[in-house]
Structures are given as C-alpha cells and as structure tokens.
Design goal:
The chain is of the alpha/beta class. It has two domains: 2-244, Metallo-dependent phosphatases (Purple Acid Phosphatase, chain A, domain 2, 4-Layer Sandwich), CATH 3.60.21.10; 254-375, Response regulator (Rossmann fold, 3-Layer(aba) Sandwich), CATH 3.40.50. The chain has ten helices and 18 strands. It has helices spanning 17-30, 47-57, 78-85, 115-125, 156-166, 243-252, 266-278, 298-307, 319-324, 352-375; strands spanning 2-6, 34-38, 63-67, 90-93, 97-101, 105-106, 109-112, 131-135, 170-174, 181-185, 188-192, 207-214, 217-224, 228-236, 255-261, 283-289, 327-330, 342-343. The strands form four sheets. A six-stranded mixed beta sheet has the order 3-2-1-12-13-14, with no helix packed on it. The protein has a six-stranded mixed beta sheet with strand order 4-5-8-9-11-10. The longest helix has 24 residues, at 352-375. The radius of gyration is 27 Å and the shape is elongated. The chain starts with a strand and ends with a helix. The structure holds fe (ii) ion (2 copies). Residues 40, 69-71, 137, 176 line the site of one fe (ii) ion.
C-alpha cells in the first residue's frame, strides 16, 4: 500500500495556495492508494476554511482520509470539519493494513488528548496480522528543532503503552509541529509530516511523506514541494511487544475477581473476605449469588468471627459484574451460561468442623489465585 501523508494544510490566513496546488499535482502523479491528512485543515475552525480546503483537496484523485487538528477544533469548528471531511474518528481497512484515525483535539485549546475511550477503540480495531497505521494530529514524543518541545499529548505515556501492547506492526502518523521527523519508540514507528501549505514552515520547504508499506517493512520518503525528494529509509516492523513492557503493564493494571455460586453461600463470602485480606493493592474481589439473600449464613459469620475476616452483605449477580471481572471463579458444577475462568469444586459446609476445613482449603486456593494474577 502506498500512502501519501500530508498535514497542516492550514487553509485561511496562513495558507500558501501555490504550494498546495503544486503538491496536489505531484501527489496525483505518485498515484497513492490513499492520502492521509493529519489535521489542521484550517486556522480558526471557521466554515469558509473547510469549504475552501474541501474544494481544493477534491482535486486529489486518491481517497482522502482526514482527521482534525487543534486549529480545526477552535470555535466549535469540528461541526464544519465533519460536514466536509466526515467523522473526526474513523477507520478503514484492507486485507493487510488497518488505518485508524483518532481525534486528539480538545475544544478551544492547543493541547492534545486521546483518552481511555479512544484507546479502547484502538485496541478493538487493530488486527494482529495486519500493519496498523494510527493517524493523530498531536505528537506522542517531543519533536526536536521545533522550538517547542513540551507540547506532546497530555496522555502520551498511556497512549504509547497502548500502542506498544496492542498495535502489532504499529505506525503512528502525526503532524502539528510543522516539522517532518521520524523515530521509533519500542516497536512503534512514529512519522511526522511537515506542513504541506502553511507559511509557518520550520524546514527548508513545505513537504509531505510518501510511505510504502510492504511485507513487515515500511519505506519512507520525505518530499519537499519545491526541493525534491529525500530517501529517509526502510524500517522493519517488529511483530511482538517487548516483554519488559508487558510485565510493567501487568503490575500497574488492576484485577477484579468475582466469586459466584448459585446461592449467596458461605463459600463465596469467605473466599471474598480471604482474597481482600491477602491480595496486593491492585486487586479486589466481590462475591455474588444467583438468588438474593437477606443475610450471610451462620457458618460464614462463625468463620469470620473466629478468624477476624470482614464479611460484606450478600449481592445478587447481575451481568455487569461478569463483564467487569478479570477473573470469574464459579463454585458449582453447572455454570449455565455464565463465563467461568475457574471452577472450584468445594462443597458447602454443613457443620462448624466442615467450615473450618473448608476455610483452610479456601486460603490455599485463594492465595494460589492471587499469585497467578500477580505474576500473569
Ligand atoms: Fe499546524
Ligand atoms: Fe496543530
């Protein structure tokens, strides 16, 4: 797949018409499969900038995939962006390549933000056996020689981690600082486009990128509108995330465990209490039964008093509890339709003696589970 990556066209006061028109002719001769525009269509988010941009960029023969920049979000401008260029967040895919465009803008500020919802969306949309191209306006690492190194995404760290873990063969395309630049962070290739047609250009000339994606490789060329083409290089894509990052991610993510039985039984209440007594800070357990109960059982109360455990009131199982849980432990043989990550065949006690034996067994099983969740 051949991608032409343009950015910061800045229709309006900053716009250089002759550069844009010359670049469009060049791009049509290159015959890319798609043209990606990583934001800053206009300057003030006002209607005539988007209209003029649409009319000019319609001369591109390839499909245009555009996402907004901070300038487009000014003055409620995203509604006009959407009128001409579609949703601020969008995706397109072929057999080998997935392209995701995320909206990194915030209204009336130049700061960039991806946010947890868009990160979850990215994680769902990427494909393991594809090259995943993520387009955003703001940069996830500072770009040198821009005179303003601080202006990265507010949530750059979380976004880099999400990209590294989820984006198999990940490429990030961005703009914003009007400086072409490329670097690699862990296994993500970051490629910035300069400005195609703004007079605020911090390089010898306005420019765009030509990116060819092949089998596990990307070939990157920087094309200056009036000064010709520079071969930047060929990069091999790495299929797996670094093991160290996965370990850190596991240690910083929380784990919720759900103990379920058909009734609100002594077993699940005691398992929950042991888990919450012994687990590290990033883990928590809840328990629930199919049927509501007015109070915890006498045997559960007996064990709790004897061992200093804290019992919670009975809860009725609802679907959200299953959805929220990282691990569901089921205490009865027949789990029905319910997702069960583990089934513990521990019989409900009928006497205080049986309850004491059950508690010992539960302490062992719960601590094995904690260890398993902790080490992954
Ligand atoms: Fe810009
Ligand atoms: Fe920008």
């Amino acid at each position: 797949m051949k991608i032409v990556h343009i950015s910061d066209v800045h229709f309006g006061f900053e716009h250089l018409k002759d550069k844009a028109e010359k670049a469009i002719k060049q791009i049509n001769d290159i015959e890319p499969d798609i043209v990606l525009l990583t934001g800053d269509v206009g300057l003030w988010g006002i209607h005539h900038e988007f209209k003029e941009a649409y009319e000019t960029l319609s001369q591109l023969r390839a499909d245009l995939f555009a996402i907004p920049g901070n300038h487009d979000a000014r003055n409620d401008g995203l509604k006009y962006f959407e009128l001409y260029f579609g949703k601020p967040r969008k995706d397109v895919r072929t057999d080998d390549v997935v392209i995701l465009g995320v909206n990194s803008t915030l209204p009336d500020t130049d700061d960039g933000y991806i946010g947890p919802h868009q990160r979850e969306w990215m994680a769902k949309k990427v494909r393991k056996n594809c090259i995943n191209v993520i387009a955003m306006h703001h940069h996830i690492v500072p770009v040198p020689h821009t005179g303003r190194n601080m202006n990265v995404l507010i949530d750059a760290a979380e976004t880099v981690e999400a990209l590294t873990i989820h984006c198999h063969g990940g490429i990030v395309l961005a703009g914003h600082r009007h400086v072409p630049y490329s670097t690699k962070l862990l296994r993500t290739h970051i490629i910035h486009a300069g400005s195609l047609s703004s007079y605020k250009v911090l390089m010898p000339d306005n420019s765009y990128n030509i990116i060819e994606i092949g089998n596990d490789k990307i070939d990157l060329k920087l094309r200056f509108v009036d000064l010709g083409e520079i071969e930047i290089g060929t990069f091999t894509l790495k299929p797996e995330p670094p093991d160290s990052l996965l370990k850190y991610h596991r240690l910083t993510s929380t784990k919720k465990v759900l103990f379920v039985s058909s009734q609100n039984s002594c077993r699940t209440k005691i398992a929950e209490a042991i888990f919450n007594r012994d687990a590290p800070h990033n883990m928590h357990a809840v328990s629930a039964g199919f049927m509501p109960a007015s109070d915890v059982s006498d045997l559960a109360r007996f064990l709790a008093e004897r061992s200093g455990l804290k019992l919670t009131k009975p809860r009725k199982l609802v679907d959200e509890m299953i959805d929220d849980a990282d691990c569901v432990v089921f205490f009865d043989d027949d789990t029905g339709e319910i997702r069960a990550d583990e089934v513990w065949k521990i019989r409900a006690p009928e006497s205080e003696e049986e309850a004491i034996r059950m508690m010992k067994e539960l302490e062992k099983r719960v601590n094995e589970l904690i260890r398993k969740l902790f080490t992954g």
